[in-house]
Amino acid sequence: MPNSMEQAYLRKIQMSGGSTLIVSLPKEWVKAVDLKKFDEVLMVPQPDNTLILMPYKRSAPNEACIEPSSRATADEVIRAYISYYLAGYDAIRIRFERPLPELAQKVKDSIRRWLVGVEIVEESSTDIVTMCLPIHASLPLKSAIERMGRIASAMQKESLKALVEDDRSLAQEIIVRDDEVDRLYHFIVRQLNLAISNPLTLVSLGLSSRQDCLGYMLVAKSIERAADHALAIAELVGASKPHDFSSVGTIEEVGKLSNSLFEDALSALLKGDIRLANDVIIRVYELAKRVEDIEVQLLYSKRNVPLAILVRSVLNNLKRISEYSADISEMVVNISVAKPRMTVGPLSP
């Protein structure tokens, strides 16, 4: 017999007591989820008029265990940890083969640096146990995205300021700030993954459908990548300086245009402004053409080669930021479209 979880069941609605409508639950599903008499089930109506039905049981936290070998690096362990964090596990245990204090400290530092809402609740010479706190209520999805976007936008402005003024201290601040963007990105993806698997989390995040989760994941990734390009500009500080007036003016001009597109894309997302989103998409194409024209001028100019390489690298990063602004704007349009009502044809025998 096929796996009951892969089947579709058709049931007729019955009437009980003259006014109450009832429907029976499939025996195979009841057995698979271990439901008994007087157990509760949770029913969550969906915007497309479907109904999600699931067991309502207060179970122990979902726990994952990572058991790295003694040859594992800190990067390998933290990558495994982040994958479980993003998947939505409540408790994550790291169990080393033997005491490795230096490796354990690097892993703990990375967890604190890149992840939101993680607490170390137990620790021994070979074990680290962490709890991932359900804090989405105190940091709503759209607030987290707005905060992430503001940090990325400030990074863009200040990376150009640091480059033009050769301010290495400011550049270092931007590099540190990128960690906060990564923390928020991981947090948002975790919440969206939980929303996909849990309709209650979906409702608590203020989303109308699971399809929206994919859209917001792409938005979060676009903001994270835009911050990475701002970081790339900051990392150029000290390598060379755009010392002539023409280069400074070009960089500042394109930088302001790119940042304006990014902030408008975020505004369109938070306000649900489709007109503004479409305007951003058009302006991104115009900026791309402007950058291409500048690159042609650089190719045939008599500027020194290191300066031309620097200006072209900065322009490329600014262009990529504007392209991520277009990606965000496209998601605004996609998310705004009403989801079709689900219909089901005849079931196969």
Automatic annotation (TrEMBL):
SMART domains: SpoVT_AbrB. SUPFAM superfamilies: PhoU-like. GO terms for biological process: intracellular phosphate ion homeostasis; negative regulation of phosphate metabolic process. Signal peptide: none annotated. One of its GO terms (molecular function) is DNA binding. Coiled coil: none annotated. It comes from the Archaea. Residues 15-61 form the SpoVT-AbrB domain. Pfam families: MazE_antitoxin, PhoU. PANTHER family: PHOSPHATE-SPECIFIC TRANSPORT SYSTEM ACCESSORY PROTEIN PHOU, PHOU DOMAIN-CONTAINING PROTEIN. This is SpoVT-AbrB domain-containing protein. It comes from Candidatus Terraquivivens tikiterensis.
